[in-house]
Amino acid sequence: MFQGNLQLKLGNFELDSGEFAFDSSGVTVLFGRSGSGKSTLLRAMSGLDKHARGEFKFNDEIWQSGKKALPVEQRDIGFVFQTAALLPNKNVQGNLDYAIKRIPKQRQHGLSTEEIIERVGIRHLLNRPVDNLSGGERQRVAIARALLTRPRLLMMDEPLSALDWRAKSELLLLIESVIADYQIPTLYITHAPVEVERLANRVVFMADGRITSVESLAEATGRIDSPLFTEEGPVSVLHGQLGEIDHDGLIAFESRQQPEAEPAFTFWLNRAEHSSPHTPGAKARLRVLARDVAIARHRPEGLSMLNQIPARIERIEVDPQTHRQVVFLTLNDGQTLIAELSRRSVNVLNLSADQSVFALVKTAALLDQ
Q1: What is the rounded CA–CA span in Å between residue 79 and residue 61?
Q2: 193, 228 contact by CB (below 8 A)
Q3: What is the pLDDT, as a whole number, of residue 369?
Q4: Percent helix, strand and coil across the chain, each rounded to 5?
Q5: I need a surface site. Which of 30, 31, 93, 201 has the fewest CB within 10 A?
Q6: Parallel, antiparallel, or unpaired for β 293-296 and 356-361?
Q7: Which residues pair with 311 in a beta bridge?
């Protein structure tokens, strides 16, 4: 659990978070426009800035109380910043050794150095000077260095923003898997909604130096005015697991309440559009644009669209920007799928809350690319 109320003034900018309390498990994303105070809040929570004031607790430990603060080196935090901040006078192995020497005695257990080097994929880089590393390679070293300190908490400040699309895709997959495998609570800053959709368990929205709301990912994507929505319009993020690849080359994305139960729904995805390897039973997230969802009052016949998902209309709202009708659908497992329709379509179909309908999904993407 994170609990507190922090203040920090940096030049003309002033952080005054307001009271907050939210779960520390999984990934918490700090999200807001540039200058909203995300990095300043992270510095205050971490103890990196000694001018921070207020109260802050991590689980049952008091990290800040007024002017008194637990030194940052006693907080057991692993840091990964936008710039990798590697020691330029050392090679990769030297940077890792520097981190290893600073592991607290009480935390010199757990994952071995060799395992972390293999896991992050940097063995072939150990003797290379850091000046000869690409941006993606530098961030891999920074992630390995953070893990080597055996942290109780990871803090990542826009670790992907300076990378090209290929390096960004590879590092996002690495970050996702490392956090899931090692179960390290993580605070993550990004401007990119797709990173939020891919990683977040919850989102801390910020504006003008204050926390405006703390929402689960489902809550954050379940309102029409979500700051996560871009020019693409509303987006749904569904949680499920991968099924078998059938003889037609389609991947099943399913939601099951129990392992042996019938799926609450099944989406069929084109394997050719998803290059990453998939393991049946693996947890996954599916991204669906509302503009790619149509609605039928009855299950249609003679239609090439495979994804015809039973649903119930929860509510219908009007997008103030586009004046289109946004239909919030509840699927059989309780998750929300959003459709964006014209007013005429809603009127012609006579759609209203509590109706049983079929969501016709033209296309969807696994959040693994």
Answers
A1: 19
A2: yes
A3: 47
A4: 25, 35, 40
A5: 93
A6: antiparallel
A7: 357
